[in-house]
């Protein structure tokens, strides 16, 4: 490796998050020496695109990770759990998009615009995690708003696209919609109930407490990223949208805040774009508007007069970009700018 170019492997390269990662790496001209694409046994013989190149899919066991600088894992928690130790033990740094390591105390959970300081300290296990696709835009707005007054509690409801549940979930929405429109009957497979022309108010397993796995991830990750104990009440809902997660947020501050400064605080964050009645044109952003875009859009900003110091707003992000691929590529970019040799991020 020349120290200005890196050998990179994408594990899960045929999936939604993996394909977006290849696209974002190419778009941003990440300094690559060699790039490898890994998927499951089912994908042997297939290819994926990387810029104008074609990459042959390989098995994870075919890759010599001692020759890889950065592996971006997006093949599910089980694949990360099973393979991370072997990969990091030969000096490869993992950026993990799955939830498996996110809450581990020695694993930095990073949104570069929010907590780059946590990355400066290195990665003792050789692993850096990227947060849940809802936690990323939510944490970005909460960090900005916390500069106005401490945030005490939020109540959020999500409207999450099917692509967040993987490639087969996208196919399920598409095929259900086609069958239903032509008068046929469908049998849910990936989702617990029909997703076409419906909404499903549960993402991930439901715990005994009634909280869903996705809701638990979001509240725990927000507290870790922001190093705070903001109370997070969230209801996660899957909606029949292909790409783009929406979220309505009711935010309660511990003290009075200046409503005028809300716009400025949000607009000052790299990656956040405020589209609101102030602009005079579009008054709000929908998932379709955000598709393929890197920004976290905030609109429908207004005071919540039903509580003492309350604010209401609406967030939309492309879950495959800032919610997944872009954040992990930004982490890689931040790592090489902190330590070109990546020594600080390798497992000792
Ligand atoms: N989609 C999102 O918005 C998003 C956002 C943040 C985080 N994530 C996380 O990223 C991970 C992947 O999500 P996704 O939406 O991209 O899922 P997906 O579309 O279902 O893709 C899964 C990928 O993993 C590969 N894979 C499965 N088993 C494997 C194995 N044993 N060895 C190597 N590769 C294997 C699949 O290969 P085959 O094609 O060969 O099956 C495919 O490339 C999940 O942990 C998810 O929680 C996703």
Précis, in short:
With 348 residues, the chain is α/β, with parallel strands linked by helices. It is built from 10 helices and 13 strands.
Explain the overall architecture.
The model has no long low-confidence stretch (mean pLDDT 96). It is built from 10 helices and 13 strands. The chain has a 7-stranded mixed β-sheet with strand order 3-4-2-1-5-6-7, with helices on both faces. A 6-stranded mixed β-sheet has the order 9-8-10-13-12-11. The chain is α/β, with parallel strands linked by helices and 348 residues long. The longest helix is centred in the C-terminal third of the chain and has 18 residues, at 321-338. It has helices spanning 16-27, 77-89, 112-115, 117-120, 135-146, 167-181, 213-226, 259-267, 287-290, 321-338; strands spanning 6-11, 32-38, 47-50, 53-58, 70-73, 93-96, 127-129, 151-159, 231-235, 245-253, 272-274, 296-304, 310-317. The chain has 2 domains: 6-131 and 324-345, NAD(P)-binding Rossmann-like Domain (Rossmann fold), CATH 3.40.50; 135-318, Dihydrodipicolinate Reductase, domain 2. Helix content is 30%, strand content 22%. Helix 1 crosses helix 10 (321-338) and helix 5 packs parallel to helix 7 (213-226). It is globular. The structure holds NADP nicotinamide-adenine-dinucleotide phosphate.
């Amino acid at each position: 490796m020349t120290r200005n170019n890196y050998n990179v492997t994408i594990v899960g390269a045929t999936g939604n998050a993996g394909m977006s990662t290849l696209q974002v790496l190419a778009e941003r001209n990440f300094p690559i020496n060699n790039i490898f694409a890994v998927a499951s046994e089912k994908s042997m013989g297939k290819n994926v695109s990387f810029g104008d190149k074609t990459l042959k899919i390989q098995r994870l066991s075919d890759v010599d990770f001692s020759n890889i600088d950065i592996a971006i894992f997006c093949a599910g928690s089980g694949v990360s759990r099973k393979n991370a130790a072997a990969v990091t033990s030969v000096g490869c740094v993992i950026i993990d998009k799955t939830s498996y390591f996110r809450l581990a105390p020695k694993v930095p959970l990073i949104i570069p615009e929010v907590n780059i300081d946590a990355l400066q300290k290195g990665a003792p296990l050789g692993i850096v995690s990227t947060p849940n696709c809802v936690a990323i835009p939510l944490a970005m707005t909460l960090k900005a708003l916390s500069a106005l007054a401490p945030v005490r509690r939020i109540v959020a409801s999500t409207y999450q696209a099917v692509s967040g549940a993987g490639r087969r979930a996208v196919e399920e929405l598409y095929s259900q919609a086609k069958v239903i429109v032509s008068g046929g009957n469908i049998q849910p497979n990936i989702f617990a109930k029909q997703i076409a022309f419906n909404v499903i108010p549960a993402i991930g397993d439901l715990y005994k407490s009634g909280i869903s796995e996705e809701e638990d991830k979001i509240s725990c990750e927000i507290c870790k990223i922001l190093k705070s104990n903001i109370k997070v009440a969230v209801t996660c809902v899957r909606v029949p949208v292909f790409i783009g997660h929406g979220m309505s947020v009711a935010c309660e501050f511990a003290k009075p805040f200046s409503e005028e400064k809300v716009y400025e605080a949000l607009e000052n964050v790299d990656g956040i774009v405020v589209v609101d009645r102030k602009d005079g044109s579009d008054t709000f952003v929908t998932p379709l508007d955000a598709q393929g875009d890197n920004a976290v859009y905030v609109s429908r900003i207004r005071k919540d007069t039903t509580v003492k110091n309350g604010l209401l707003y609406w967030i939309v992000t492309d879950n495959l970009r800032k919610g997944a691929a872009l954040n992990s590529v930004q982490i890689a970019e931040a790592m090489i700018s902190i330590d070109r040799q990546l020594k600080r991020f390798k497992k000792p």
